[in-house]
Structures are given as structure tokens and as C-alpha cells.
């Protein structure tokens, strides 16, 4: 396995979705409050993901000493907006509300590897309900954007560029 293959595998695990055969990652609910990924072994190039307000508590426990950041699987309970995993943790803010990449507002639900390859910080603001703004597609606005600026990735875009 090459370092690049390992890197793609690690990022796709952390962000849940990697579009096979492309350099596109889809942004989804993170599984860690904060993580740093070393993109290069020879030089200190990192990709840091910070999930602000991603709050979890152990199911049925109020003892903060038992908090663990190990995640096996995350399930979303649509009725209560709570996600739980096999470690019996409860997430009370599992939904992405907004994203910043290197301090800039990021409206897209995806990014290319080239967006992070020289080092990056992604900040995700999390909340208890799905966002009514971030990740929402307005077809009229999308038609006016170039394919690289659309909310959904190029390969998933229903609106084709001419």
C-alpha cells in the first residue's frame, strides 16, 4: 500500500464517504471531535478536522470519566436527532450546520484532495437538527454556478454544465 492509498483510506474512514475513482471526499457527520491526519511522512503536512459542538455522553451514564472517543458505528435516530454507536455513546449534535476550510466559509458538501494536500484545517459546526442552509440545493442558483462551485459534487450533480 502506498502512502497515498493509506491517506485516501484514512480520510474516507474519518469523513465516511470517498467517491471511488475520483479525488472527491463528501463531508458528513464526523466521528471524532478533533483529529489531525498527517498527509506527509517526510514533511509536517497535516489535515486537521475540528467538530465544534459535537457533544456526546455515554448512554445512561452521567459520569464524565467514562467518555470515550472510540466509535464503531453511528446511527441516526430521525425522531430525536440523536445518534448512537456500538460503544453506547449518544450524540446530541450529529448534524453539520456549517463548514469552514482554512478559515473560509465552505458551502459545498464535498472537497477535492487538492483542497487539503498542502495542509488544511476543516471546522465543522454541529447541531441537533439538519441544517436548513448548509448543504441545501437551490436548483436555480446551482444552474448558474460552474460545476466546481456546486453544492453537490460534479459526479452527483443533476444539473449538467454546458
Q: Could you name the key traits of this structure?
A:
Glyco_hydro_92, GH92 mannosidase fold, 12428_t:CDS:1, 5-stranded mixed β-sheet, mainly beta, 2 domains, PNGase, 4-stranded antiparallel β-sheet, peptide-N4-(N-acetyl-beta-glucosaminyl)asparagine amidase activity, 12 strands, 162 residues
Q: Can you characterise this structure?
A:
The protein has 162 residues and is mainly β. The chain has helices spanning 3-15, 139-144; strands at residues 17-18, 24-26, 34-38, 46-52, 56-58, 75-77, 82-84, 89-91, 95-101, 104-105, 110-112, 120-127. It is flat. The termini are far apart.
In short:
Helices cover 12% and strands 30% of the residues. It is mainly beta and 162 residues long.
Gross morphology: flat
DSSP E strands, number: 12
Instruction: Report the helical percentage.
Output: 10-25%
Radius of gyration: 17 Å
Please list the strands of the largest sheet in the order they lie side by side.
Answer: 3-4-12-9-10
For the record, the CATH class of the largest domain is: Alpha Beta
> How widely separated are the two ends?
39 Å
Find the structural class using helix and strand composition.
mainly beta
Quaternary state of the chains: single chain
Q: Describe the main β-sheet briefly.
A: 5 strands, mixed
CATH H-level superfamily of the largest domain: GH92 mannosidase domain
Output the CATH topology of the largest domain: GH92 mannosidase fold
Q: In DSSP terms, counting alpha (H) and pi (I) runs of 4 or more, how many helices?
A: 2
Order of helices and strands: HEEEEEEEEEEEEH
User: Would you tell me the overall average pLDDT?
Assistant: 74
Give the count of structural domains: 2
InterPro entries: Glyco_hydro_92, PNGase
Protein name: 12428_t:CDS:1
GO molecular function, one term: peptide-N4-(N-acetyl-beta-glucosaminyl)asparagine amidase activity
Domain Glycosyl hydrolase family: 19-128
Amino acid at each position: 500500500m502506498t502512502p497515498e492509498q493509506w491517506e485516501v483510506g484514512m480520510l474516507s474512514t474519518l469523513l465516511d464517504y470517498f467517491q471511488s475513482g475520483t479525488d472527491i471526499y463528501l463531508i458528513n457527520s464526523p466521528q471524532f471531535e478533533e483529529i489531525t491526519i498527517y498527509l506527509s511522512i517526510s514533511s509536517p503536512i497535516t489535515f486537521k478536522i475540528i467538530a465544534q459542538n459535537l457533544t456526546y455522553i455515554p448512554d445512561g451514564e452521567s459520569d464524565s470519566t467514562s467518555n470515550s472517543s472510540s466509535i464503531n458505528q453511528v446511527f441516526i435516530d430521525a425522531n430525536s436527532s440523536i445518534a448512537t454507536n456500538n460503544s453506547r455513546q449518544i450524540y446530541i449534535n450529529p448534524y453539520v450546520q456549517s463548514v469552514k476550510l482554512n478559515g473560509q466559509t465552505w458551502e459545498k458538501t464535498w472537497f477535492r484532495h487538492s483542497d487539503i494536500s498542502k495542509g488544511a484545517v476543516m471546522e465543522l459546526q454541529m447541531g441537533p437538527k439538519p441544517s436548513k442552509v448548509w448543504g441545501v440545493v437551490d436548483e436555480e442558483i446551482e444552474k448558474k454556478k460552474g460545476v466546481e462551485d456546486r453544492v453537490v459534487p460534479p459526479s452527483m450533480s443533476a444539473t449538467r454544465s454546458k
